[in-house]
Amino acid sequence: MAISSNPMRIRTKLEGDVCQVRVLMSHPMETGLRKDPLGELIPAYFIQLVTVRYRDRVVLTAQWGPAVSRNPYLSFKFQSAAKGEKVTIDWLDSKGDTRSDSAVIE
Amino acid sequence: MRSSSVVALVSLMASAGLLPSYALAETWNKAGFDAKSLDELLKTLGAGKPEQSDQVILTAPEIAENGAVVPLEISSKLANTDSIAILIEKNPNTLAASFVISPGTVAYIQTRVKMAETCNVYALVKASGKFYYAAKEIKVTIGGCGG
Amino acid sequence: MTGPRTQSHLTVLLAAFALTLAAGVFAQDNRALEDMQKFRDILREDNPAELSEARGEQLWAAPRGPNKVSLQQCDLGQGPGELKGAYAKLPKYFADTERVEDIESRLVTCMQQLQGMSRAQAIDGWYKPNSDLESLVTYVAAKSKGIKIDVPAAHPKEAEMYAVGQALFFRRSGPLDFSCATCHSEEERRIRLQEVPDFLTSAGARNTMTQWPAYRLSQGAVWTMERRLIDCIRQMRWPEPGYLSDAIIALQVYLQKQANGGVMDAPGLKR
Q1: Chain A residue with minimal CA distance to B90?
Q2: Which of A14, A37, B12, C26 is the most exposed place for a label (fewest CB within 10 A)?
Q3: Sequence-ordered alpha helix ranges (H) in chain C
Q4: Residue B118's pLDDT band (boundaries 50, 70, 90)?
């Protein structure tokens, strides 16, 4: 599906050694409770797991339900960060699709 | 939360390339995400009777212009905060999201959630093996021309 | 039985009480609107429309259609491939199609002329979230950030469209006997807690037109101005204008000209 191929928009901000990351992900995050114009229920379809890695360590993991908004936004902060290093964000959704995007800390 | 340590372990294994990605979904806390009431969810999470704490700070609008996108900001000043969960009292399923805060990560999350109707939103925090929370009522409005 | 003086005292007191009550309610309304604006600003800092914009950038440069050509030579009114300021100066008259075109119809023209698509192919699924046209319009509009809206409607065809658009704006019709002006004619008007922009003043028009296309939270997608207008007209219980029709372009010529001088800041974020 074309939607899942949209790259995440990742912004990083370094203050001292704390990096704040702001991510926008492209995903419909369907609850399974909505109806389409024909009155049919649109099946649930949402990101379930998110993993954030910095260098060789896992910084954050998240479990999401469909109550997270469409085109999810996530912001978090971690320590011991350095300019030029990479942050990688992975997601896995309820259909088994995955997506991985990285950003270099500026 | 037992599942949180499982998620952490699975994530570590995944990062070491030891786990096929489809297996990750099995660790998703289905019982938690299926819970339909605050009481049921707290029981499933093993949170018992969490203590209200002003060390848990939940920032959110008083009125959500649209229940589909409600911005939340949660931070915990409690030492050894290792997880944060977002609970929305009157949603069909109470648990919206949960986060495992690794050592070296700030106990801070911003995200956006769907709210079915005006109700209390809870930030549930686990720190040093105990559960704490902050709550805020958020009003959800109806749009102008019905949309 | 109260005498005239007591009665007038009473009236004054009642009036003062009513005013205080109203002021209190009004102040509360204002606080609610301010609170919502504050959070709209926060949401705008990380606007999901950026995802659409990024996709639009890819689509603009991708060789597509039967001719396998990109849109990079598309003339949006400022010359082939010239994107900066193009959105801010639309709709305008184009000699090659002999039509006044808005951003969407011009993109469709380019998809047909350059990429060899049929009209049906070009507009296929335009209304679906994350559609190609939605993404392309978002990308092009973002290239006008910081640039003033400049729609003089000077060309005879443009002037004609302006007059039609203006007539449409004020025309009462449909089962509710509504015109656009019925609602969009006063500052600080709202329906429930949704603000209804004033289009009768330049300031009001500028405030709105500079923020479209916009990510609509209620839709989880970026909507173009044309699309938003079509939907508003539907909600007025009028028959919907056809996609890319003269009628809907005429309305945009009117509104954009009203908004001349406004500084573009799209994609915006709306309810």
Answers
A1: A67
A2: A37
A3: 4-45, 49-61, 103-113, 119-123, 132-142, 156-170, 180-183, 202-209, 225-235, 246-258
A4: very high
Distance CA A105, CA C159 (A): 51
Distance CA A63, CA A45 (A): 14
What amino acid occupies position C226? E
* Alpha carbons B94 and B113: distance in angstroms, whole number: 12
Listed as ranges, residues in chain C with pLDDT below 70 are 1-8, 10-29
Contact B145 C40 (CB under 8 A): no
CA distance C124 to C265: 28
Closest residue in A to B114 (Cα) is: A67
Instruction: Name the phi and psi angles at C263, rounded to 5.
Output: -90, 120
Buried b (16+ CB within 10 A) or exposed e, A25-53: bbbbbbbeeeeeeeeeeeeebbbbbbbbb
C135-158 pLDDT per residue, tens: 999 999 999 999 999 999 999 999
CA atoms within 13 A on the CB side of C236: 24
Task: Answer whether residue B5 shows pLDDT above 80.
Answer: no
DSSP lists the bridge partners of residue B132 as B51, B125
Residue C111 Cα to chain centre, angstroms: 23
Whether C116 contacts C65, CB under 8 Å: yes
- Which ipTM was obtained for this model? 0.94
- CA distances, C28 to each of B53, C14, C19, C110 (Å): 29, 21, 14, 50
- Beta strands at A18-24 and A47-54: parallel, antiparallel or unpaired: unpaired
Query: What pLDDT does residue B96 have?
Result: 98
Averaged pLDDT of chain B: 85
8 Å CB contact between C70 and C61: yes
Q: Can you read off the two tokens belonging to residue B2? A: 């037992």
Q: Of how many residues is chain B composed? A: 147
Beta carbons of A53 and B15 less than 8 Å apart = yes
User: Minimal Cα–Cα distance from C47 to chain B, Å?
Assistant: 11
DSSP per position, B110-135: EEEE--SSSEEEEEEEEETTEEEEEE
Helix (H, G, I), strand (E, B) or coil at C258: helix
Q: Name the nearest CA neighbour of B32 among B21, B22, B46.
A: B46
The two structure tokens encoding residue C98: 């002999």
